[in-house]
Amino acid sequence: MTETQSNKRETWLTKDKRPIVIAGPCSAETEDQVIETAKRLKATGKMDIFRAGVWKPRTRPNSFEGVGVKALPWMKRVKDEIGLPTTVEVANAKHAEMCLEFGIDILWLGARTTVNPFAVQDIADALRGVEIPVLVKNPINPDLALWIGGIERLQKVGIKEVGAIHRGFSNLGEKYYRNRPQWQIPLEFMRLNPEIPMINDPSHICGRRDILQDVGQKAMDLDFDGLMVETHIDPDNAWSDAKQQITPEVFGAMVTEMVLREDYEDNPQLQSQLEYLRREIDHVDDELMNLLSNRMKIARDIGAYKKDNNMTILQQKRWNDIIEKSKNVAVKHGLSTEFVTKFINAIHEESINQQENIFNSK
Ligand code: PEP
Ligand code: MN
């Protein structure tokens, strides 16, 4: 082959600019809050599309569920007066119809909608024959097929401009993130669907402000096509997701500090399949470290408990049970029992060391 191949990901969303940055409040609260956030975001010069939640699917009742349809004219003002394209989350067909009526530019499906194929299909049916871009967040559970399935339902009714948003996966016992990123899942999505834009949502992955920059940067380093960041004029008093929102100015500084890659022509092998797979490996390794650190925190808590109750560190019967159980699990997962025994012993040794430190501390 004589021609130099361009290795840039080519997607409908990033034709003119890459990466694409979406920003705006978790929820539209008042007209002033929406307009003020949009003006201050626009002034940063660091974002392209304005987001706001109008209907908020909440995990538990009695949380703020969004102001509803009355926020749509506020979004229309953002578009007409401030000149920013807008995007809104839709969770059912009626929401989608109302957004179309108010000229919302892009729709997105939330993580709690993507999990439900019936809901996705209803929205898709409402959009049959309509030309509007739709972004689909990953489902709350780490199920790549379900995520891709949601996108396919939209493609089947004729939506051509589909995109994906990676917002992390909920996980029992997770302490560091609000939703564990499990980077290997979006990377596998990108490998299978190189023409579909992949946006990273660090806000819902982190659930806090101090690690937003790192997660967003990691997404950029992994060749994601864009970011979606929650911003609020008064983050501490936001009506939803207060802990993770940042002011438009902090957002501007965050994006300014990031290394945003525009072009990969100087690094032709970056996009190769092998490179993708290697990066998936790197991120599985990161996940392993994160899990190990979660495990050690629990081990230290157990150490403190044993110390308070004058119990020995090593509880032989419990340990034998763990070894036996992991041997069975090894066979089930196609791992050698030798490897699994070594691995679990190394973890155990570290747990004992950590507990010994607790015993020896005052
Ligand atoms: C949101 O974007 O505000 C939201 C509700 O996100 P998710 O669907 O990722 O929970
Ligand atoms: Mn939110």
Terminus-to-terminus distance:
69 Å
Ligand names? phosphoenolpyruvate, manganese (II) ion
Principal-axis shape equals: globular
The CATH topology assignment of the largest domain is: TIM Barrel
What top-tier CATH class of the largest domain fits best? Alpha Beta
Q: Give the second-level CATH assignment, the architecture of the largest domain.
A: Alpha-Beta Barrel
SSE order, one letter for each helix or strand:
EHEHEHEHHEHEHEHHEHHHH
Strand order across the largest sheet: 1-2-3-4-5-6-7-8
Helix content: 40-55%
Uncertain regions spanning at least 5 consecutive residues = 1-6
Structural class: alpha/beta
Number of helices: 13
Instruction: List how many beta strands DSSP finds.
Output: 8
Mean pLDDT: 92
Rg: 23 Å
Number of domains: 2
User: Proportion of β residues?
Assistant: 5-15%
Task: Spell out the blueprint of helices and strands.
Blueprint: E1 20-24, H1 31-44, E2 49-52, H2 72-82, E3 86-89, H3 93-101, E4 106-109, H4 111-114, H5 117-126, E5 134-137, H6 144-156, E6 162-166, H7 184-192, E7 198-200, H8 202-206, H9 212-221, E8 226-230, H10 248-257, H11 273-308, H12 316-332, H13 337-360
Bound molecules: phosphoenolpyruvate (PEP) and manganese (II) ion (MN).
The site of phosphoenolpyruvate (PEP) has 8 residues, from helix 4.
